[in-house]
Design goal:
The protein is of the alpha+beta class and 474 residues long. It has two domains: 299 residues, no CATH class; 61 residues, Dna Ligase, domain 1 (2-Layer Sandwich), CATH 3.30.1490.270. Helices cover 28% and strands 23% of the residues. The longest helix has 25 residues. The chain is globular. InterPro entries: ATP-dep_Glu-Cys_Ligase-2, CP_ATPgrasp_2, UCP005522. Pfam families: CP_ATPgrasp_2 (PF14403). This is Circularly permuted ATP-grasp type 2 domain-containing protein. It comes from Donghicola eburneus.
C-alpha cells in the first residue's frame, strides 16, 4: 500500500500549523460543517464563480466545487515554495528571451532545436522582438505537488495565460465570512493585494513613450469563454477596462480603445486570448476575436502584450524536462524546486522503458492539458493501457511519462465527515521590470473523489483556500 504524506498530522499528532484548524473542526458539529459548506456554495453561486466543461452535453457552466477545510503552510514551508517559484520564473523568462534572440541555450546543446522550432507554441514572428525588461511571461503558474515534509516538486509550468487566480481571491473572501474567528489573530497572510501587484507590474513594462500613468486593459474572447468570470473579476479589482477585439484598433503602430469620448490609447494589454486568435494579420486570418495589426504595434513598441505571444514554447511538457538546466545555465544556480522524474517517449530507450512499465506510470500528451489525454497506469484498465500503448507506438514524440506520485493529502469535508484528499498547488508568479514576486497563497486543487489523484475541476476536482502563516501556527 502506498504511503501518502499527511500535511495535517504525523506520528506525533497534529502539526502546529494545523492545530487551531483541527481544534475548530473538532468543536464544530457535522451539521454545522454542512451548513457552512452550503453557505460557501451559496456565496460562490451568487458571485457567479463557475467554470465550463464542453463536450458533455447540457449546460457547460458549473459551480466550482469548493472544500471548506483550508490548506495551511507554515512560513518556513512557504519560503521554499516562494524562492523556488521565483527562481523558476526568472529562468523561464531568460530562456524565452534567448529562444527568440541569440539562442545560446540551443547552441550549447542544452536543448534540441527541434523541440523549439517544431513546437506548435513557437511563434517565428517573435524572433528578434525584445519585450520591455526582457519579460515574455509576466504571469506564470507553477504547478507543484508535495510528497514529503520537505519534498516539493514541479509538475508543470504555465507561461501562456494561466487561470485560477480569481478562485484564490474568492476562496479567501468566502472563508473570511464563514470562518471569521480563524482570521482574528492576523497570522494568515493576506492575498487581496494581487490586483495591485499585477497592475504595478503591468505599469512597469509600459512602452517607453508612455507619458504619465499608462492605460491598462484586459482582452477577453467574450462571455462565452470558460474563464470569463476571471477576466471580468480581474478587471474589476484592478480598476481597468475589460475589452473585446471589436473594441480596439491599431493606428500609427499604437493600440487604441473606442470610447464615447473618442479613441483612448492602451499601453499595456493583458490578453486572455490564445496566440492564434490575437491578430488575424499575423496568425489565424479567420479570427474574429483579435485585433488586426496588434503584432505590428507590438513589434514597433507601441503596446506591451502580457503575456507575450510565443511564451508557450517554454511550458511545453517536453520543454519542461530542461528547466533545471535553464536555471543552471541562465542563473548559475541549483534548482530549489526539482522536476518530477520524466521519461520522453521521443527517446527510443526511454520509450522502451515507458512501454514496459505502462501499468505503473502516468503518461501525458506533450500538448495536453486539463487532465485530458493522459493515462494513470495503476488506476487504468487493461484495455486503456493497451490503447495508450498503441498511441505511443504510433507517435512517440507526442508523449512523456512520469512516476505515479504519492500526492500529499489534506483534510477535506466528505459525506462521512473529514477525510484525507489529494492536492496540488499553483502559485502565481508576477514579473515586472526589476521585480519578480508572488502573493503568499495559491490555487490549491483537491481531488474530491476518494482515492483519485486527478485534481482538475473538469475531472471532478475542487478548490480550497490556501493559508500561509506568518509563523509556524495561528
Amino acid at each position: 500500500m502506498v504511503a501518502y504524506y499527511d500535511e495535517m498530522k504525523d506520528r506525533a499528532g497534529i502539526k502546529p500549523a494545523y492545530a487551531d484548524v483541527a481544534e475548530w473542526a473538532k468543536a464544530t458539529t457535522a451539521e454545522d460543517l454542512r451548513l457552512r459548506q452550503n453557505e460557501a456554495e451559496g456565496l460562490f453561486r451568487r458571485n457567479g464563480i463557475t467554470f465550463a466543461v464542453y463536450g458533455e452535453g447540457g449546460d457547460p457552466e458549473r459551480l466550482i466545487p469548493f472544500d471548506l477545510m483550508p490548506r495551511v503552510f507554515s512560513s518556513s514551508e512557504w519560503d521554499v515554495i516562494e524562492r523556488g517559484s521565483i527562481q523558476r520564473a526568472r529562468a523561464l523568462n531568460a530562456f524565452l528571451t534567448d529562444v527568440y534572440g541569440k539562442r545560446e541555450f540551443i547552441k550549447a546543446g542544452k536543448i534540441p532545436a527541434r523541440l523549439v522550432e517544431g513546437n506548435p507554441a513557437y511563434e517565428p514572428i517573435m524572433q528578434g522582438i525584445q519585450p520591455v525588461g526582457d519579460i515574455f511571461s509576466h504571469i506564470i503558474g507553477v504547478d507543484l505537488v508535495r510528497t514529503g515534509p520537505d519534498e516539493f516538486n514541479v509538475l508543470e509550468d504555465n507561461c501562456r495565460t494561466p487561470s485560477g487566480i480569481s478562485y484564490v481571491l474568492q476562496n479567501r473572501e468566502v472563508m473570511q465570512r464563514i470562518m471569521p474567528s480563524m482570521f482574528r489573530s492576523g497570522q494568515v497572510r493576506p492575498v487581496d493585494h494581487y490586483g495591485d501587484m499585477l497592475a504595478a507590474a503591468m505599469q512597469s513594462v509600459a512602452p517607453d513613450d508612455c507619458d504619465g500613468r499608462p492605460t491598462l486593459a484586459i482582452l477577453t474572447p467574450g462571455h462565452y469563454n470558460s474563464a470569463y468570470f476571471e477576466h471580468s473579476f480581474l478587471a474589476d479589482i484592478m480598476g481597468i477596462e475589460l475589452v473585446e477585439g471589436q473594441d480596439l484598433f491599431v493606428e500609427n503602430d499604437m493600440l487604441f480603445m473606442r470610447t464615447i469620448r473618442g479613441p483612448e490609447r492602451i499601453h499595456v494589454l493583458y490578453r486572455r486570448i490564445d496566440d492564434a486568435f490575437l491578430d488575424p494579420e499575423a496568425f489565424n486570418p479567420d479570427s474574429m476575436l483579435g485585433v488586426p495589426g496588434l503584432m505590428r504595434a507590438y513589434a514597433a513598441g507601441g503596446v506591451t502584450i502580457v503575456n507575450a505571444p510565443g511564451a508557450g514554447v517554454a511550458d511545453d511538457k517536453a520543454t519542461y524536462v530542461y528547466v533545471p538546466e535553464m536555471i543552471r545555465f541562465f542563473l548559475g544556480e541549483e534548482p530549489i524546486l526539482p522536476n518530477v522524474e520524466t521519461w520522453q517517449c521521443a527517446d527510443e530507450s526511454e520509450c522502451k522503458y515507458v512501454l514496459d512499465n505502462l501499468s505503473e506510470l502516468v503518461v501525458k500528451e506533450v500538448h495536453g492539458s486539463g487532465g485530458y489525454g493522459m493515462l494513470i497506469g495503476p488506476k487504468s484498465t487493461k484495455a486503456e493501457i493497451e490503447k495508450f500503448e498503441g498511441l505511443i507506438k504510433a507517435n512517440p514524440g507526442n508523449y512523456i511519462a512520469q512516476p505515479t506520485l504519492a500526492l500529499s493529502t489534506v483534510p477535506s469535508l466528505s459525506e462521512e465527515g473529514l477525510a484525507p484528499r489529494h492536492v496540488d498547488l499553483r502559485p502565481f508568479v508576477i514579473s515586472g521590470k526589476g521585480k519578480t514576486e508572488l502573493i503568499p497563497g495559491g490555487l490549491t486543487r483537491v481531488a474530491l473523489r476518494e482515492g483519485s489523484l486527478v485534481v482538475n475541476s473538469s475531472q471532478g476536482g475542487g478548490v480550497k483556500d490556501t493559508w500561509v502563516l506568518r509563523g509556524d501556527r495561528l
